[in-house]
Amino acid sequence: MPTVSLSKTTAKILIYPVFMVNSAFGKWSFLWDPKTIDAVTVNRVYSIEKAKTELGYSPQYSLEDGLNETIRWYRENELFS
């Protein structure tokens, strides 16, 4: 659980120098890109109830299984440690 809370602007200011150094060396990292701040702070809670009732949709994965498989894929592809 995070113990420090920063504004989005402050977080971007702190990340930007690392982003610039990485860019100078032709490197890119999702974790050190200022755009990531926007990507991870947007509320992305959606409901699938309408798809279930109107289309008969049934998810192939539980949330937990889907997250575990996603994390495993990121680690296997060296995008997340």
In summary, what is this structure?
By secondary structure, the protein is mainly α. The protein has helices at 8-24, 34-41, 49-55, 63-76.
Provide the fold topology.
Blueprint: H1 8-24, H2 34-41, H3 49-55, H4 63-76
Helix pairs in contact: 1-2
Helix count?
4
User: For the report, how would you describe the main beta sheet?
Assistant: none
Order of helices and strands: HHHH
Q: What is the first-to-last residue Cα distance?
A: 18 Å
Q: Residue-averaged pLDDT, rounded?
A: 92
Strand percentage? under 5%
Which consecutive residue ranges, at least 5 long each, have pLDDT under 50?
Answer: none
How many β-strand stretches? 0
Number of domains: 1
Mind telling me the C-alpha Rg?
A: 17 Å
Shape: elongated
Estimated helix fraction: 55-70%
How would you classify the helix and strand content by structural class? mainly alpha
Provide tags for this entry.
about 55% helix, about 0% strand, mainly alpha, elongated, about 80 residues
Walk me through this protein's architecture.
There is one protein chain. The protein has helices at residues 8-24, 34-41, 49-55, 63-76. With 81 residues, the protein is mostly helical. The longest helix has 17 residues, at 8-24. The model has no long low-confidence stretch (mean pLDDT 92).
